[in-house]
């Protein structure tokens, strides 16, 4: 569609009217970039001129017909539909002249001069020029005549000479000569243009690139073609869409129309008429735009597509093996067409279209040449390596060091996929065995972050290399983390056996890090490392001398094996704060996240996990992303959000399939088993339990986490012996490893639940008291659960105090289900003949907390149905966390306090007078009295002194 061309068409209309009214001929030249709509302007104007009483003769130049003498003139005369005898006369003259002049260089000004001299010397021009002009004059006698010539830059020299002859004689002729010309590398036909500009009635009309308003109009017109109208409410959306299109096309009408058509096809959910993808239409538009330029323009565009960054004219010249100045016109042409911005191709889609049009061998050759030129010009290793990888070229001594440096930078930037590509190429080119092993170690690090299953064979090769005398110290250590991930702890220990290093320096830090990693991930190995923390514990507080990796793992070591008075939470937070913005630090930060989890700060783990997962770079590292998601899921589970925890654990297993997790698979599986069990979907939990786990899982702390989850599921299914076996085994493992931390696995609490379900209240009480004494890592949720369960083993007079404390603790975390259970248990402690209103309020609050899809109320709504407080039979024979019956009655909502009533009641309970409440809430004293009357009735109280207890039962602590 023709938009943003009203001003240009108005100029042409004025020229036509001047020609018609005053009888003075006009000459207009329409210029613009390729694809700017010149042809459409000529056609639109021609249609208008024909309806305005004019006659239009049309012709178009073509690159392939520049050597055809009088080709454009012939087109004009044929479009005039002359009488046969007149047409034969003109054609005869054209043929005679064409055969009588020497051959000249197509399209050159020198050739045009030679042609003119030959024709003038022989006197051949005169009859033809007079006959052509007389023919045009005769046609103009019927009405204004328009001679429209498109693509002037491709017009043959002979026709140009005839056109000049006509333009010189337009003073008293009603003839308008309308020409169009595209931007070219060099000015086309400068002599012709010089004479055109000297004419008294010459007009130049330039077609600019489209603007936001014009594209908005274009989109709106497309929408109106599909809809009944275009509402004003969509105006802003149209402008935003127009800006997006302009960012891609630069305002080039040809490319813009392709994107608009693509948008229309997408909105109408229909494929293009050709049956191809809509994306192909845009690619074709880009290619059409380039092929309509000279070959030199296309070559510069291809060079810029290969470089994919701003380039100076010197760099472009070296890349294309041409003089730097010769690239300037091509860059100017590309900018005028909207394809170029800030020295590079405007958008990735344009770059993609240009690259796809290049033959593979040509693209490879340009990448190779780009690598050489960029290296010679001192470009960064990562920039040079991009072209080395694309060309697969290694025939130079500097290639491998550049690839190594680029890979190291990519790893530190969170791009393991790109690092792996560099290292694969470097490994093929490296001839030194030691350096090749080092490259292999880096390659394993990169590929593992993308897919741990892909490095199994390479890890074994690296282990074999580490056993040889030619292997370096760092090569042996680099294999350890991946051996541990695969559960090959003995091989990991063997890899570092005999490794000696000074107690200072990078080698010492690397060895200490590796030994600590083995001791923490497989606690049955290297017990002496845990027994002698002096070799690593101080690393946490030595930020300038220890490596960040050693610091991170040392923080986790201190969380699992407390040493001294180190503030684990503060140390972990400092590491996260220092490194969380580094793109390649996701793996480094998993250790402090785990440390916070073990320290009982699930809330901080949830906050940090969300920040890390929101970073754009995590999409390149599926392994670390999955690990962070698994840790975050466990943290949200401990905060009581079962839905978020299950969703996170599922995503973690989507990032990495279960076999790729190695011995760490127990982490996300354990969280999923617990979530589905707690949600009452126990058969779904059995599905996750059926997933195979390596035997080595149970040699790791993750195995203890998995045993806890499996034990809880066994208990929920009534399999008490299996539950007790799993939980006893879990306790034995963590105690034998010396990492019996409540934040890791609260196994005593879960075992106490089993004992309660079996009626062993004494054993359960002892386990719960022991759990409460394990202070390290005891979070509020675990403490609140322990207090609630301990209350079920206490005497009636002590039970309510424990439950009150449990409710207070659980209110500080967000586990609404556990809080509801504690409130429900509180109802059981109220005397049978006690206050029924207070009991009903406790029941209402408990059920309100659990009003979510798939959950049942914590208690039946009728307070009369609660058992007597000294009835211990039910407590002893019913699993402590078993879901209550869902047989309940819904109380009338009118008995609940409105928000306004609740505000008044809270202030009254705090001792405010009616006048003070009135001033504080900006309501009248009468309104306060009315609210209080309804509050007293609903809560069944007689005075202000009874309000605090009632409100506590209904809403919890008053803010």
From TrEMBL:
Keyword set, alphabetical order: ATP-binding, Nucleotide-binding
Gene3D superfamilies (alphabetical): Winged helix-like DNA-binding domain superfamily/Winged helix DNA-binding domain (1.10.10.10)
Pfam family, one: GerE
Superkingdom, natural source: Bacteria
Keyword Lyase: no
CDD domains: LuxR_C_like (cd06170)
SUPFAM superfamilies cross-referenced by the UniProt entry: C-terminal effector domain of the bipartite response regulators, P-loop containing nucleoside triphosphate hydrolases
HTH luxR-type domain location: 890-955
Residue ranges, compositional bias (Low complexity): 870-880
Region (Disordered): 846-896
PANTHER family xref list: TESTICULAR SOLUBLE ADENYLYL CYCLASE, TRANSCRIPTIONAL ACTIVATOR DOMAIN
Protein name as catalogued: AAA family ATPase
Organism: Streptomyces amakusaensis
Taxonomic lineage of the native organism: Bacteria, Bacillati, Actinomycetota, Actinomycetes, Kitasatosporales
């Amino acid at each position: 569609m023709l938009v943003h061309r009203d001003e240009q068409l108005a100029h042409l209309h004025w020229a036509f009217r001047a020609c018609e009214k005053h009888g003075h001929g006009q000459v207009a030249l329409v210029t613009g970039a390729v694809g700017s709509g010149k042809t459409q302007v000529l056609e639109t104007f021609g249609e208008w001129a024909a309806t305005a009483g004019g006659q239009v003769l049309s012709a178009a130049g073509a690159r392939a017909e520049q050597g055809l003498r009088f080709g454009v003139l012939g087109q004009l005369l044929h479009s005039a539909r002359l009488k046969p005898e007149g047409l034969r006369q003109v054609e005869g003259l054209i043929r005679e002249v064409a055969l009588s002049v020497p051959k000249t260089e197509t399209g050159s000004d020198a050739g045009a001069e030679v042609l003119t001299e030959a024709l003038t010397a022989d006197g051949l021009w005169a009859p033809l020029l007079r006959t052509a002009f007389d023919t045009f004059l005769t046609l103009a006698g019927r009405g204004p005549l328009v001679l429209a010539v498109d693509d002037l830059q491709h017009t043959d020299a002979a026709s140009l000479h005839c056109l000049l002859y006509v333009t010189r004689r337009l003073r008293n002729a009603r003839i308008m000569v309308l020409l169009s010309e595209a931007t070219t590398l060099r000015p086309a036909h400068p002599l012709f243009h010089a004479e055109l500009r000297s004419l008294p009635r010459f007009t130049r009309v330039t077609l600019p690139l489209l603007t936001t308003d014009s594209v908005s109009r274009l989109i709106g017109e497309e929408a109106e073609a599909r809809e009944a109208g275009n509402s004003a409410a969509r105006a802003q959306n149209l402008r935003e869409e127009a800006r997006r299109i302009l960012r891609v096309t630069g305002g080039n009408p040809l490319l813009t129309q392709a994107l608009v058509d693509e948008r229309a096809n997408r909105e109408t959910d229909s494929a293009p008429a050709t049956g191809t993808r809509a994306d192909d239409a845009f690619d074709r538009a880009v290619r059409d735009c380039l092929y309509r330029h000279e070959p030199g323009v296309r070559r510069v565009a291809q060079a810029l597509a290969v470089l994919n960054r701003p380039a100076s004219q010197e760099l472009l010249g070296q890349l294309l093996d041409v003089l730097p100045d010769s690239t300037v016109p091509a860059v100017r042409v590309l900018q005028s067409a909207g394809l170029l911005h800030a020295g590079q191709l405007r958008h990735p889609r344009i770059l993609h279209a240009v690259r796809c049009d290049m033959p593979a061998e040509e693209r490879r050759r340009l990448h190779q040449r780009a690598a050489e030129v960029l290296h010679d010009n001192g470009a960064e290793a990562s920039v040079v390596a991009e072209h080395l990888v694309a060309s697969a070229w290694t025939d130079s001594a500097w290639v491998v060091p550049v690839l190594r440096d680029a890979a190291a930078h990519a790893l530190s930037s969170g791009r393991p996929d790109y690092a792996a590509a560099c290292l694969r190429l470097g490994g093929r080119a490296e001839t030194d065995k030691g350096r090749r092993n080092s490259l292999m170690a880096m390659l394993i690090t990169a590929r593992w972050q993308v897919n741990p299953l892909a490095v199994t064979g390479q890890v074994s090769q690296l282990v074999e290399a580490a056993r040889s005398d030619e292997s370096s110290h760092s090569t042996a250590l680099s294999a350890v983390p991946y051996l541990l991930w695969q559960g090959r702890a003995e091989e990991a220990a063997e890899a570092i056996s005999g490794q000696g290093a000074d107690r200072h320096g990078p080698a010492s830090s690397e060895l200490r890090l590796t030994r600590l990693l083995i001791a923490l991930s497989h606690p049955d190995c290297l017990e002496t490392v845990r027994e002698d923390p002096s070799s690593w514990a101080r690393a946490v507080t030595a930020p300038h001398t220890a490596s960040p990796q050693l610091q991170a793992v040392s923080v986790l070591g201190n969380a699992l094996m407390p040493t001294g008075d180190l503030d684990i939470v503060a140390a972990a937070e400092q590491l996260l704060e220092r490194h969380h913005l580094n793109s390649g630090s996701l793996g480094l930060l998993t250790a402090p996240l785990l440390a916070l989890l073990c320290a009982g700060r699930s809330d901080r783990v949830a906050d940090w996990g969300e920040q890390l997962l929101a970073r754009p770079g995590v999409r390149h590292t599926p392994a670390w992303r999955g690990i962070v998601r698994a840790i975050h899921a466990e943290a949200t589970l401990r905060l009581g959000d079962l839905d978020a925890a299950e969703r996170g654990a599922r995503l973690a297993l989507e990032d990495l399939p279960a076999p790729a997790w190695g011995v760490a698979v127990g982490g996300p599986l354990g969280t999923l088993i617990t979530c589905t069990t707690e949600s009452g979907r126990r058969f779904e939990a059995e599905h996750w339990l059926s997933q195979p786990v390596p035997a080595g899982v149970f040699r790791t702390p993750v195995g203890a986490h998995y045993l806890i989850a499996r034990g809880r599921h066994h208990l929920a299914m009534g399999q008490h012996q299996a539950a007790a076996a799993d939980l006893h085994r879990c306790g034995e493992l963590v105690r034998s490893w010396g990492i019996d931390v409540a934040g890791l696995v609260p196994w005593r609490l879960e075992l106490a639940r089993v004992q309660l379900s079996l009626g062993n209240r004494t054993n359960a009480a002892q386990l719960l008291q022991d759990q409460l004494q394990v202070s390290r890592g005891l979070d509020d949720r675990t403490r609140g659960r322990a207090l609630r369960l301990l209350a079920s083993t206490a005497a009636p007079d002590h039970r309510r105090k424990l439950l009150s404390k449990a409710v207070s603790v659980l209110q500080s975390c967000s586990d609404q289900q556990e809080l509801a259970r504690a409130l429900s248990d509180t109802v059981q402690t109220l005397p049978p003949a006690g206050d029924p209103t207070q009991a009903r309020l406790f029941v209402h609050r408990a059920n309100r907390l659990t009003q979510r899809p798939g959950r049942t109320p914590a208690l039946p709504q009728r307070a009369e149905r609660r058992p007597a407080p000294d009835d211990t039979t039910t407590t002893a024979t019913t699993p402590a966390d078993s879901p209550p019956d869902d047989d309940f009655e819904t109380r009338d909502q009118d008995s609940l306090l409105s928000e306004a009533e609740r505000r008044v009641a809270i202030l009254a309970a705090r001792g405010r007078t009616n006048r003070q409440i009135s001033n504080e809430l900006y309501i009248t004293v009468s309104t306060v009295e009315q609210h209080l009357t309804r509050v007293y009735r609903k809560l069944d109280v007689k005075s202000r002194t009874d309000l605090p207890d009632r409100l506590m039962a209904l809403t919890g602590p008053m803010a």
